[in-house]
Amino acid sequence: MSDLSEMTPERRERVLRKRSAIIGEPAVVRRMSRRTSLQKVTSNGTIAAAVMVAAALLAVIVANSPAYEAVEHVLQAPLSITLGGLVASMSVEAFVNDFLMSIFFLLVGIELKYEMTVGQLRKPRQAALPMLAAVGGVAFPAIIYLLFNHATAPHGWAIPIATDIAFALGVMSLLGDRVAPETKVFFQTLAIADDILAIVVLALFYGQTPDIAWCAATLLVVLVLAGLNRRKVYSARPYLLVGLVLWVCMYNSGIHATLAGVILAFFLPARSDVRLGRLRAWLGVQARLLDDTYDDESHVLGQHDFTAAAERIEGIMHHVTPPLERVERSISVPVNFVILPLFAFVNAQVRLVGVDPMAIVSDPVTQGAFLGAVLGKPVGIILVTWLLVRVGFAKLPRHVTWDQVIAVGIMGGMGFTMSILIAGLAFSSPQEVMAAKCAILAGSFCAGALGVAYVHLDGHFRSKKPGGEKGGDAAAAAPAGSDGAGE
What we know:
Layout: H1 9-22, H2 26-42, H3 45-63, H4 68-75, E1 78-83, E2 86-91, H5 92-117, H6 124-149, H7 165-173, H8 181-205, H9 212-230, H10 236-253, H11 259-267, H12 279-293, H13 304-320, H14 323-347, H15 357-362, H16 364-390, H17 402-411, H18 416-426, H19 430-464, H20 474-477
Antiparallel strand pairs: 1-2
Helix pairs in contact: 3-7, 3-14, 5-8, 5-11, 5-14, 6-8, 6-16, 9-10, 10-11, 12-13, 14-18, 16-17, 16-19, 17-19, 18-19
């Protein structure tokens, strides 16, 4: 899953020079160069996280301004689709939370399948430590929340369990080389495992009373997806069309409709239907055919054999990329720069006008959700990691120090997106929803700020030690023989 934006500057310059040599129009070359610069921006996780945070801050400002009534009216306005005598309607807010967020879950599912196919999750032993640490990072926040709310609002126990992978990794990228690459991989694996657990919790505990007929229809559509995959259909369009039907069925079944995206992702083929080992030889034959059919003195519109051969090459090269990756490329930018900021804006409408701040601070929902994220997450992640290493079940990956494990635990408390989604499902009372959202916003900000501050302070104190520049002997800080859990 690489593109020009992920290449080194030298390699990117070479690729662009080759494009310039084959493309005849200077204006086209300039547009491609600008497009490459835009890709570099849109592929930056820090920028994507900043846009989402800005949208949430804008929502809080708007909610406490005279514009609140107008914005709320727009969010509650109905969106309707009529097909013959069938009319479907939902509010703008529901459209964002139920439909657009299913596209976000499709991206999450694609990332999960990618990691299970060629990433960290394909090596169980290597992934075991961060995945089990994620279990601790789910259990402890839930326990802390229930300590405050077991008798009053227990249904919100899952609010502090999630880690927002986009938000957390965006903040971690701000630290640059202060954090070892292996630590970032450890954190990413932990966040992915956390997503899996949150998806399971969402499916099991936050659906509605199931409608048997629609559940049966959902199962039937899933079987259709399985049939497409089994029959080796490598075009993404049929899967997306069936996925839309799946969303409709799940929306009416009582199962949370956003999970349709995850189900769809796991049926998208992750392989190419092109024999890649023979591609180079085939391209050589096609290149000679292009040379034989091209007439330098004729207009391209009249060179039917040449354009037919070029179209055949274009079709084959399109199929080189698996459908899973093609869909990921098409939705990643809209998800990160449109859907998630829109979700943040719609759901961070916390109106504090006329509200007693102390009432919010003293609310058990606020206390449980905030402390669950800021305290429970790091305690669960760090304690489980320490116990597994202590008993010899696993070793810290190479160059991952205990100081960096602590930083990972602290930053795990950034649970913005999934936590807000769960809060909206857990409570029907506006007061409880507002208390939960205040806790989520404050907890995510505190977890990010504390994590960054901890890494900077740790680096500062290490640099004071003899030979401690940039963390000193980072590898030595890991347990003896710690050469990577999967190596």
